[in-house]
Write a structure and sequence with these properties.
With about 200 residues, the chain is α/β, with parallel strands linked by helices. The chain has one domain: Ribonuclease H-like superfamily/Ribonuclease H (Nucleotidyltransferase, domain 5), CATH 3.30.420. Helix content is about 45%, strand content about 15%. It is built from 7 helices and 5 strands, in the order H-E-E-H-E-H-E-E-H-H-H-H. Strands 3-2-1-4-5 form a 5-stranded mixed β-sheet. Strand 1 and strand 2 form a beta hairpin. Helix 2 crosses helix 5. It starts with 9 loop residues before the first helix and ends in a 15-residue tail after the last helix.
Length: about 200
């Protein structure tokens, strides 16, 4: 599938035809950052949600994501967010923390039938699930989850920027830009940096 093609409800419709009703898209944001939590979202998006501009959050501008966020929240049957902290990232590694955040998001929803997860499958959940490579590009409910997760995490990083203004979190959201690396070199890390990452190895 071309990355220029918008995500569709094709897989959700196939699952509905098999009798599944509450089909959840799951995605995360913040895996590759040097600071801040990893944030996951789970979204049940109805087939008649009519959010034509919905795409993988990475293909959208910050303004576009902020415009889509309230539409998804308003039109979703249900949605939730789960997080894993910097301490949990250090303890579990980023993949383990990512899966933990996803599981926490899923556990916030009631009476779910099936999970469609970007890239992974989530251990410890009892409902059927499917991991879909590049699912945020292909599956509408996963794309919706990617936007909710990204906007939620970006807003958190903007809050952290007020507490720790020297790092520029409000601009790069904790990712490894030159500005961010230079600020770490100048000021050292803060409590929200992922000190288990090799960037911080002495």
């Amino acid at each position: 599938m071309s990355t220029k093609s918008p995500p569709t409800f094709k897989i959700e419709r196939e699952l509905l035809a098999q009798g599944f009703q509450r089909i959840v898209g799951v995605d995360e944001a913040g895996c590759g950052a040097l600071a801040g939590p990893v944030v996951a979202s789970a979204v049940i998006l109805p087939m008649d949600s009519r959010i034509g501009a919905l795409r993988d959050s990475k293909l959208l501008s910050e303004r576009q994501r902020e415009e889509l966020y309230p539409l998804i929240v308003e039109r979703a049957v249900a949605w939730s967010v789960g997080m894993a902290s910097v301490e949990e990232i250090a303890r579990l590694n980023i993949r383990g923390a990512n899966l933990l955040a996803m599981r926490r998001a899923v556990e916030e929803l009631e009476s779910i039938d099936y999970l469609l997860v970007d890239a992974w499958t989530i251990p410890g959940v009892t409902v059927p699930q499917r991991g879909i490579i590049r699912g945020d590009l292909k599956v509408k409910s996963i794309a919706a989850a990617s936007v909710i997760a990204k906007v939620t995490r970006d807003r958190l990083m903007i809050e952290l920027a007020r507490e720790f203004p020297v790092y520029g979190f409000e601009v790069h959201k904790g990712y490894a830009t030159k500005v961010h690396r230079d600020a770490i070199a100048l000021h050292g890390p803060c409590p929200h940096h992922r000190l288990s990452y090799k960037t911080f190895a002495s």
